[in-house]
């Protein structure tokens, strides 16, 4: 199904765009113009780690791990995100699957770089399983030997060297934005463009809530929470 009329009627987005619609209004607008099956794809992108579905899956996972006497090195928050990524990776739509895979790799590389810099335990920072995660856990190479598996590895490593947390997060979202543009380039008015529009708008909504001072405070708190929740070992 093509979404020409839906997309041309939406506000054009740039990284500094001020939104005209609230997030709730935007979702309602998008869903009202989408097919039932495509609305499910949008809902997959809206999945959050605190959703009831993820909470139920987490409880089942922890119970199974306890029965198997399998130790868990990840925090509950990281387990929740792992379940979100796993669900996203099972989407019937390649764009949704690739978006979750990209963000998982992005976040894991960032976490691995923090571990390297501060001497933290990588096993307690890397979320999920797969070739990229295994390389992050085991490789001693500067690029974790991921140049052939992750096209953006150089960009991500450069971002991880930015000390200013607010600037780092802004530039990380710019990388996400570029990824979305590149992965919708040849999907003319298809559902991928609608999904990318939502993801771009979601970034803008988040930045609308933050000025520089508030952003610094939030991102410092995020790093502190990550260090505490993962309980890094020196």
Topology at a glance:
Blueprint: H1 4-8, H2 23-32, H3 36-45, H4 52-67, H5 76-88, H6 94-118, H7 131-138, H8 153-160, H9 165-182, H10 191-208, H11 212-230
Helix pairs in contact: 2-10, 3-10, 4-5, 6-7, 6-8, 8-9, 9-10
Report on this structure.
It contains 11 helices and no strands. With 234 residues, the chain is mostly helical. 64% of the residues lie in helices and 0% in strands. Helix 4 crosses helix 5. The chain starts with a helix and ends with a helix. It is globular and about 50 Å long.
Which short descriptors sum up this protein?
single chain; 234 residues; mainly alpha; 11 helices; disordered C terminus
Q: What is the global morphology?
A: globular
How many alpha or pi helices? 11
The portion of residues assigned to helices is 55-70%
**First-last Cα distance:** 53 Å
Q: What is the number of strand segments?
A: 0
Rg value:
19 Å
Largest sheet: none
- The average pLDDT is 87
Query: Poorly predicted ranges (pLDDT <50, ≥5 residues)?
Result: 226-234
> What order do the helices and strands follow?
HHHHHHHHHHH
Strand percentage lies at: under 5%
- Class from helix and strand fractions: mainly alpha
